[in-house]
Design a protein that fits this description.
The chain is mainly beta and 107 residues long. Helix content is 13%, strand content 48%. Strand 2 and strand 3 form a beta hairpin.
Length: 107
């Protein structure tokens, strides 16, 4: 049986849980209706069904930052940290769309 492709995957993501940084090269994965925040080594930082996740643009920040609430914990994701060629605005937009499509709350 073939594994399903993820609805969204991003690497090189800075993941912060106010006020500290958890990883500078993390991964964000949305697959099978579940969102996972992972370290660069693949260890799970946090995980929840997408319908229980809230995501939106972070206030007073650039287009690469997203505010995220998973299991009642607030995170700030900064996309495109490792890839200077990445269009971070589009990547962030794709992430927010993927959360909405999978049933999560988008602001």
């Amino acid at each position: 049986m073939a594994m399903a492709e993820p609805e969204f995957r991003a690497t090189g993501v800075r993941i912060e849980r106010w006020p500290r940084s958890l990883t500078k090269a993390g991964q964000v994965l949305i697959k099978d209706g579940r969102l996972q925040l992972l370290t660069s080594y693949g260890r799970v930082i946090d995980s929840a069904p997408v319908r229980a996740v809230r995501a939106g643009k972070a206030w007073f920040s650039d287009e690469s930052s997203t505010a995220l609430t998973v299991n009642g914990k607030r995170y700030r994701l900064t996309m495109g940290q490792r890839d200077e060629q990445a269009d971070v605005g589009k990547l962030t937009g794709r992430f927010l769309k993927a959360v909405r499509r999978a049933g999560g709350a988008g602001d």
